[in-house]
Amino acid sequence: MKKTAKVLCLLLAVLMLATLAAACDKNEGDTSSAATSNATSSGGGNSGFRLEKKDWDGVTINILTHNKREHAFYEFGTLAQETEIKSDNVSTAFQERTNLLEQEYGIKTQVHFTEEGLGAPTNEIEQQILAGLSDYDLVADGVQSLTKLGTQEYFWNYYELDNGYIDLNADYWDQSAIEALSIANHLYYITGEAIVSDNAATWAMYYNKDLLADNDLQNPVELVDAGTWTIDALYEMCKAVATKVSTGDTMSYDPADGDIWGMVSQAYDGLAFMWGAEQSMITKDEDDLPIMRIENERNVSAWQKISAMLYDKSCVGVADLFGPWSETYAKESQIFTNGNAAFMPGAITVLDGETMDNADINFGILPMPKLDVDQEEYSTSCTVYWATFFSIPTSNVEKLDATCYLLEAMGYYGQEMCTYEYYDKTLKLKKMDDPEDERMLDLLFQNRTFDLGAVYDWAGPTAGMLQFYTSMIGSQSSEIISVYESKRDSFQDAIDATIDTFTKYRSSKKGEPISVRPFFVFGLPLTGTLRLALCRALCRRLLAACRGCAAA
After folding, report:
1. Which residue of 81, 127, 409, 428 is surrounded by the most CB atoms within 10 Å?
2. What is the pLDDT of residue 357?
3. What contacts 483, CB < 8 A, 6 or more positions away?
4. Is 32-199+386-434 CATH 3.40.190.10?
């Protein structure tokens, strides 16, 4: 009888081990789950939506976002909730999308706005998770802010979601962002046609058509078409236009004094010029791990050209170099819209907002200039402070499937219902009156890139990678190598810490979903290697107990 008990105990142990192992490794590398099979091409609703139509029975997905940008309001269909939103075609389109998702799929959305602006949603989600709460199912915030929780693995890895609802290869998700922002096959932030504020955050070059014509300068659109719109070409135009009429030894930053600048800018635009030159601070290796490239020869050459132009106070006015930021920053757009500057870099939100609506100038839009004629394509990027991305908190477990389904539907129907209203009918039709400008706008978005160094701001916030070029502009330094060498170790240490965080967890290959249903310990989710380690620890204790029983 005693022997039989021992055998039964061992058999039970084996059975429990098998069960635990299955719980730990379920579907690893397996893409044939039942959930995935639901992602058919049969469509749903009244469109070609790829997912099988499903009634989510009125589930409410709580979305947390910031309160400072008008886009954060109207792109989530919150006209009824926020009275300060202007009623226009874009707002109406997003409201109609919200209504459709509820009517066709039974998914309601409740949008919550933080009292503070960008970064506040991320901070709130952190407090929620630490407190074991799950009030919010989806967060929309500036991507640079979101990385704070990405490095703590407080967001679901999109590559590991196993329900088959989010198609990261779909054209309504920004493929450049997906490729650039993953590290070690961990992807915590996505953007695309579900919203418009990522487009509004994209850099462009604005120019005064009349000032260039008055100085007998070539139409820069012709240079763009010829592939010769370069930093050198921009600099030469700036020098040709600049005219000093004020008294004093230097150009005046007060439009009332009448000086004409070649270009007005700000220190942060240094990044925009570098990205226009296709020079990111970070590249990635074959294992999807970040590598610094600041000391690359072409990167150094680009900065020498850009800094030489930005530091030339006879024709280029960089707001930050003319006094305290609070006193001069706003004058950048004031000078341009008053007709006192030929060029001004700025995000698309400048075009989208009221700044240009009230400007009494004949302006156009261009891509950021190339480094030189050898550069094959024009390039641009986003201001990472408020380029809005989506992340799913790991506290979202019960409504994870519905949230993923909602995100995919927001992307698809955003492309179908909202993008045209924003891009074609608002940016183009209402803000532009020249087909050339419309064509340049299209060109802007053809090669938009993202720089991991700026997004993660390694070694930041005051002396991190996001401020690398900005700080050099502040000190008017062109010695990129010496500045980089003084910061390299701190940059690398921060990068290594992020890599260590991501690689210590079990990760799937891109496009191969695995099950990541977490254990919760003290309200906190355990996924990846931590989950596996917990399972193994329990198994070892069970085996030890069974061996003790058998020995007895």
Report:
1. 409
2. 76
3. 468, 471, 472, 477
4. yes
